Amino acid sequence: MEIAKIKSLIAAIGRAAAKLVKDIQQAAIEVTLHAIAHGDVTLADSLVDACGSGVRRDSLRAWLEINGPFAVQASGKFGLDKKRAKTMKATAEYRAVLESKLWNEAKREPAAVTVLDIGNKVDKFLEGLNKTANMDGVQVRDRELMDFLITQTKAWHGERAIKAARAMNAAEQRAALGYAPKAETETA
């Protein structure tokens, strides 16, 4: 293919891509306003499905979730978030708000940080291990290791309880003497 034809093809792709982004924005706005007005969320799934793999569908889904009465169900399909739907109105003002929020720039909220309680996990693991080891017909290898882990875990929990009690006791003593909590009395 000649370079002029390649450049022409690239330019045509750029124009088509820009038009597609604009068309998806308009469709997303209309789908959102329709869902607000009628409680019908089926068009949201249809829009996302119509986009195919060449489009940032994750951004489109995020935009719909952020700006409309949509909630993703366990099936992955959109459902109606009735609580949010009651707070939204399909008005000209909201249309303007939606037009200012570009679908292809939307990002999902970051996932909530999950706290991993190692002590709890180890306790449950050792409890299950001990239960299995004490079943009839089970031959246990390295029982000493299991006993060691149980002993060390109990000691760790004991030390933790002592530290917590000491901290509580010290705080109670300061309060009984009329002192403010330590963090509030310190100055820079």
Task: Outline the secondary-structure elements.
Layout: H1 3-38, H2 42-51, H3 57-67, E1 70-72, E2 78-80, H4 82-87, H5 92-100, H6 118-133, H7 143-176, H8 182-185
Antiparallel strand pairs: 1-2
Helix pairs in contact: 1-2, 2-3, 6-7
Percentage of residues assigned to helices: 55-70%
Could you tell me the mean pLDDT? 86
The parts where pLDDT drops under 50 for at least 5 residues are 184-188
Order of strands in the sheet with most strands: 1-2
Number of helices: 8
How many E strands? Answer: 2
Strand content: under 5%
Largest sheet: 2 strands, antiparallel
> What Rg, in angstroms, do the CA atoms define?
30 Å
What spatial form do the alpha-carbon principal axes imply?
A: elongated
Structural class: mainly alpha
Give the SSE string: HHHEEHHHHH
Domain count, please report it: 2
Straight-line N-to-C gap:
72 Å
Descriptive tags:
mainly alpha; 188 residues; single chain; two-stranded antiparallel sheet; 2 domains; 8 helices
What this model shows, in words?
The protein is 67% helix and 3% strand. The chain has two domains: 103 residues; 68 residues, no CATH class. The termini are far apart. 11% of the residues are buried. The longest helix has 36 residues. It has eight helices and two strands; from the N terminus they run αααββααααα. It has a two-stranded antiparallel ribbon with strand order 1-2. The protein is mainly alpha-helical.
In short:
This protein is mainly α and 188 residues long. The protein is built from 8 helices and 2 strands, in the order H-H-H-E-E-H-H-H-H-H.
